[in-house]
Amino acid sequence: METLPLRLSPGQDLRRALEAALAVEGARAAFVLSGIGSLSGAQLRLAGRERPDTFEGPIEVLTLAGSLSDRESHLHATIALADGRVIGGHVAPGCTVRTTAEVLLGLLPEWEFRRMMDHATGHPELVIRRQPPAATGGEQP
């Protein structure tokens, strides 16, 4: 595992910025090891709901966790609203960084994450595959 510390800037979309960082690194699988920060607005899909709810800031990100892939990500966050209420759910696009977000990713270069429909759950679920080692110039198969 390789670690990638990130500091996101005001105005960045939390989810899209993490997915973009993964793409820059050329990784196909990663986990969020730690994440905190602040948001000016959040889109979280609460348990059992079809669509995300909108929350207006200032908002503190208390926890951020989940898996990232080069195709689909599955992120959860716990946020605190300005009045102290704490809410958690699935991170959707539309979580805008207010002052900063500090995130530590664990890149997994030997692995690939995909999501495929699981008929037992009725949802696209994580499929984990080991990647073959990258070929280097002078090695023979």
UniProtKB/TrEMBL annotation:
Residues 1-129 form the PPC domain. InterPro entries: PPC_dom. It comes from the Bacteria. It holds the Pfam family PCC. This is DUF296 domain-containing protein. It comes from Caldimonas thermodepolymerans. The lineage of its organism: Bacteria, Pseudomonadati, Pseudomonadota, Betaproteobacteria, Burkholderiales.
